[in-house]
Structure formats: C-alpha cells, structure tokens
Amino acid sequence: MKPNTLATFYEALAPGPESAAGVVPPPDMGQGVGHFNVFPLAELRGTPPMTFNRRDYYKITLCRGRSQVECADQAPHVGDTTLFLVTPRVPYRWLPLTEDFAGYSCLFDDAFLLPARTGVLLAELPIFQPGAYPVWDVAAADCVALEAIFEKMARELSSGYAYKHDLLRTYLWELIHLVQKLQPAPIPLATHSAAARVATQFTELLERQFPRQSPQPPLRLRTATDYADQLAVHVNHLNRVLKETTGHTTTALLSRRLAQEAKLLLKQTAWSVSEIADSLGFADVAHFCTFFKRHASQTPGDFRRLAVFGV
C-alpha cells in the first residue's frame, strides 16, 4: 500500500458544504519553499476516522482529550494529553476517544527543512532515528509550553510578513527540540568513532530497504554477509561493532526489522502470505511462517485475523 500524500490528506479533510470544519492548505506555499501547515485539532471534529497507513510527510501533534495512537507494530498508546510525532517511515493512526478533543497539529515535508536552509538533517536527530518510540504522555506544564509554540506558528502562518517561512522554520525547530527534550529516555547522539560510523551506515542501509511498496523485487540485502560486503568490512567486524553499539548481533537486528515489517504488511496490505514471504526474501512460505511464529508467537494467518478484528 502506498503512503498517503499531502494531496490525499487535504482531500480527506476538506471543509464540507454545510460546515466550516476541515483543513485547507496554506494559500501562499509557493514552489521552492516546501510545505508547512499548522491547525487546531478542533477543525477535525466530525471528519472521517483516520486510516492506519504511512504518510509521505512529517507531522507533530499535541492532543488534549483522551485518544489512542497506533504506531507501527507497537501496542496502542492511550492517554489524556498526548504528543506524537509521525515520519514517512512509520504507519500510524490517531483515534480520538472523546468528542471535545483539542490541541494542535503541524505537518511539513522534507523540502521545508532542507539542510541547505537549516544546516541540520532530520535523520540525525534522536527522535527521528529508526526504533525511536514516537508517542509520549505530556504533563500540564509541558503542554502549556508546547501549545505556545503551536500558537506562534498559527499566527505567523496567516501573517503577511515577507520572511515568515524563515520564522516558521525557527518555530518548528524550537518545537522539535522541545519534543526531543521531553523524551522519557533520550537516545544519545552518535559519536564520531569508527565503530559508531559503521553502525550508523548499517542502520541507514537497512532502513533504505523499507517500507516495502510491492512484493517484487525481493530484498536486495538479506544476510549479515550482504551488509558487510556492502559496507566493505568483514562480517565479524560488523557483528562486533553492532554488538558494542546496540547490544545486539547483526542477525538479531535484521530479524527484528524483518519481523516488524512482516507485521506491518500483514496488518496494512492485502498481500498473500506467500507474497509477503517473497517480498522479504524468504526461500518459501514454510521458512517465513517458522520465522514469524518464532518472533510473534503466532502464525501469520492468526496475526492477520487478530489485527483485522482488533483483538
């Protein structure tokens, strides 16, 4: 399943003929600027429920009011004041559990925060690292600080200031850094050691193969040796480096990522189990089923049935 685009986002949330509720794109987002928008969540009241899928943009949302957030293959997070961050890599769904929810959401694309404009790569920040859990409960004082930034962005977005997009980027970075400070267990920034560089290159190479958009062609890199050859290091060196920096072997990291993608494909697509096995590079369905049951404690078919019925 292809990720939702900005166009489909606005189509789904366009104001109805009898209501002013809904979300519209900013009128002055010209070419070369990238895309940015911010809006109060109250504008989403009465709109269709969100689907579980990936998006091809980033989103940061603060919700006051009980709601549920489902991210990747993690258990749903239910909270009363919740902050969550969405990247193009992670499928998610947000479900308000009360009718009087409030808060803000901002969405932006890669072009809005190009390194040439900001000097920073999003992928280098801890909260955008693969495996970082993107949902947090927020204390009252932190909620006030977060809302203040969202409100500044909302006022500036509607202003006529000639350099407002530069100012909006500043506010967005302020928000991103505040979100990063709120992490319960911050991930330390990578050091510049040779081992850290190899570990970072391995992670980038691994994540570049996902998400899977179609059953064919299968994964190009499938084993620890494949990755070692691609990185021009001995497989024993790669294994030692990853064990030192992550606490896991190369094979364990590959297996965990394959299991995660398998769960997402079973939950998110209509592909057959055979097609999923082919896409992930398994020799046959039997090997895939054995692998999946070892990691998920149930068969692919049982997992899909439970996911569909929300059990």
Summarize the helices and strands and which ones pair or pack.
Blueprint lengths: L5 H7 L23 E5 L17 E14 L5 E10 L5 E5 L5 E7 L6 H4 L16 E3 L2 H18 L6 H18 L12 H14 L16 H8 L3 H12 L3 H19 L4 H7 L5 H12 L3 H9 L3
Antiparallel strand pairs: 1-5, 2-3, 2-4, 2-5, 3-6
Could you explain the architecture of this structure?
- There is one protein chain.
- The protein is α+β, with helices and mostly antiparallel strands and 311 residues long.
- It has helices at residues 6-12, 115-118, 140-157, 164-181, 194-207, 224-231, 235-246, 250-268, 273-279, 285-296, 300-308; strands spanning 36-40, 58-71, 77-86, 92-96, 102-108, 135-137.
- Strands 1, 2, 3, 4, 5 and 6 form a six-stranded antiparallel β-sheet that branches.
- The longest helix has 19 residues, at 250-268.
- The chain is globular, with a radius of gyration of 21 Å.
- Mean pLDDT is 85; it is low at 186-192.
